[in-house]
Amino acid sequence: MTKDWFADWFDSPYYHILYKNRDEKEANLFISRLVSFIELPKESTVLDLACGKGRHAKMLFESGFNVLGVDLSPQSIEFASKESVKGLDFQVHDMREVIEGKKFSAIFNLFTSFGYFDADSENLKMLRSIHSMLEDEGLLIIDFMNAVKVIENLVTEENKTVDDVKFDIERRYDGQHIFKDIRFSDGEINRHYTERVQAVKISDFEAMLATSNFEILRTFGDFDLNDFDEDTSDRLIIIAQKK
């Protein structure tokens, strides 16, 4: 059986090299604003779904919540688990599957960690699993790219060097997915990975969330939580509630 593209790439050390310079200050402010907006009681139990190396999970924990972070990448979870303490835990998990015996007040799916799959049915499977893991009237927070703006402003070619590794990046859109072809050389190592994310628009999310028995409470267009505008916003941030 062929592995999903993200299973190999997200577990590669070169994935973490390429994306090492993410803005921690911006991420901290974003989480702080989100926490203030959703007003969950302190010590609520929340899930960081597709947590990567755990930076958002740690911020949620520091905001006063009991946090479980899960990710498909064993390397990411091994790294994140170095920060494990009482109330902050990590485990390897496929986000399409239910975590048995767990219930959460809120589930966070951040930094465009949606739309990796080939079929819409897999997105719906993920949303239904989330629904079953949420407490009554629990919240789902999705932070995704604004696909409309990304497509209209697609940077087709980019070169960058990180930690002496030169990455050659090409982007394309096939009418459904945005592809990012990543080629790099490191000594005698030559690799090529292709990221593929569905260009999920707000109308698509509205339909999928309604089908999965969620109600959208609010949408935002950036990490400052300004209103969403499909033409101009950088992000699509959705706050939805289990019905």
What does this 3D model show about the protein?
There is one protein chain. The model has no long low-confidence stretch (mean pLDDT 93). This protein folds into two domains: 5-147 and 201-242, Vaccinia Virus protein VP39 (Rossmann fold, 3-Layer(aba) Sandwich); 150-195, no CATH class. The strands form two sheets. Strands 3-2-1-4-5-11-10 form a seven-stranded mixed sheet, sandwiched between helices. A four-stranded antiparallel sheet has the order 6-7-8-9. 29% of the residues lie in helices and 35% in strands. It contains eight helices and eleven strands. Helix 3 (24-38) crosses helix 4. Strand 8 and strand 9 form a beta hairpin. The longest helix is centred in the N-terminal third of the chain and has 15 residues, at 24-38. By secondary structure, it is α/β, with parallel strands linked by helices.
